[in-house]
Design brief:
Blueprint: E1 2-5, H1 12-24, E2 32-35, H2 56-65, H3 73-84, H4 97-119, E3 121-126, E4 132-137
Parallel strand pairs: 1-2
Antiparallel strand pairs: 3-4
Helix pairs in contact: 2-4, 3-4
Length: 151
């Protein structure tokens, strides 16, 4: 089992770099543990700089899904990436459970991004030092607290 350690606030580029190495080394998703915790045991992460193409739709959804707070999001992304190497038109399969889950995660992030644009309001406040600053307020709750990174 290979432990792919990501930072707790991991981004899509960080995941993509590790995933490229794993794909280049032909490591199947069942042999990868995506974690935020350092691992004492396990195989080292392989290096690799394989260039390959995936559908634009996957990249757009994966960038959004990486912002979701689902702990299994990176395992899902790698599983789909692995399958895309063998089944180029996987993203067009509307009945595939992994594709359905990816769409749900991406839509939740996009919905939260919209809520932030629509409902977050800023007002000017004065700091104790006398400088002007802005305070953001919202009347909604969001399931993806990192959606603000998109904009």
């Amino acid at each position: 089992m290979i432990a792919a350690q990501l930072a707790p606030d991991a981004s899509f580029p960080e995941w993509r770099e590790k995933a490229r190495g794993l794909i280049a080394a032909h490591v199947p998703p069942t042999n990868v543990l995506w974690t935020h915790e350092p691992q004492l045991f396990g195989d080292p992460l392989p290096d690799g700089d394989l260039k390959f193409s995936v559908p634009r739709e996957f990249v757009e959804m994966a960038q959004a899904a990486a912002l979701h707070d689902d702990p299994e999001r990176f395992a899902l992304l790698y599983r789909i990436l692995w399958r895309l190497q063998r089944h180029r038109y996987l993203m067009e399969d509307a009945a595939d459970p992994d594709v359905i889950k990816l769409r749900q995660l991406a839509r939740a992030v996009w919905r939260d991004e919209h809520k932030m644009h629509a409902f977050v309001r800023f007002r000017e406040v004065e700091t104790p030092e006398g400088r002007a600053s802005f305070l953001g307020t919202s009347r909604t709750t969001m399931c993806c607290p990192r959606a603000s990174i998109i904009s």
